[in-house]
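Retry 2 of 3 after timeout on previous attempt. Resubmitting structure tokens to design endpoint.
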């Protein structure tokens, strides 16, 4: 998708120590544009993760569990696709409310992380070794993939990784085996 030109960050006023600080308001357009530039890869990653979980757990999971899980991810995927399309139109119709768009993107990211955490909770005990390792790798891959996207938002990164990993950690710890 085409990207809109954004202005470079300005030095923040009031710095007199010889160092240049970035004005967060000036960096917001670039942060927001960068986040949305990752959206096609994010959408592809969601489809890949869903596909792998279906491959690993379809035969082991009742449809009464699998179909609502698939429905939740499908709704999220469609909403994020719609958000990307609307954002791409908005950047060509100034003024752009960059904070609004970044907030929407952040909410989508947290919802995605929560669904991956829910996936760990739902599926971990439904499989054996290979399925459990596959599930761990899928969720770990999601958490690693968000590093470059969320590098400028460390609190969001921690929240996202926590939402995805904590349910997995609790599920693994609840097995009771000595590792």
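Retry 2 succeeded. Sequence:
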């Amino acid at each position: 998708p085409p990207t809109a030109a954004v202005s470079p960050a300005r030095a923040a006023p009031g710095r007199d120590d010889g160092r240049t600080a970035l004005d967060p308001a000036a960096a917001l357009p670039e942060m927001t544009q960068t986040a949305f530039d990752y959206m096609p890869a994010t959408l592809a990653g969601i489809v890949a993760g869903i596909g792998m979980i279906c491959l690993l757990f379809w035969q082991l999971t009742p449809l009464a569990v699998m179909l609502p899980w698939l429905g939740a991810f499908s709704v999220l995927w469609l909403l994020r696709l719609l958000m990307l399309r609307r954002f791409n139109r908005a950047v060509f119709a100034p003024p752009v409310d960059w904070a609004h768009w970044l907030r929407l993107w952040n909410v989508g990211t947290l919802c995605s992380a929560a669904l991956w955490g829910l996936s760990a909770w739902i599926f971990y005990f439904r499989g054996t070794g290979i399925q459990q390792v596959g599930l761990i790798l899928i969720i770990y891959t999601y958490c690693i993939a968000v590093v470059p996207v969320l590098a400028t938002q460390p609190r969001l990164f921690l929240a996202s990784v926590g939402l995805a990993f904590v349910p997995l950690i609790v599920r693994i710890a609840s097995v009771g085996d000595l590792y």
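Attempt log closed. The radius of gyration is 19 Å.
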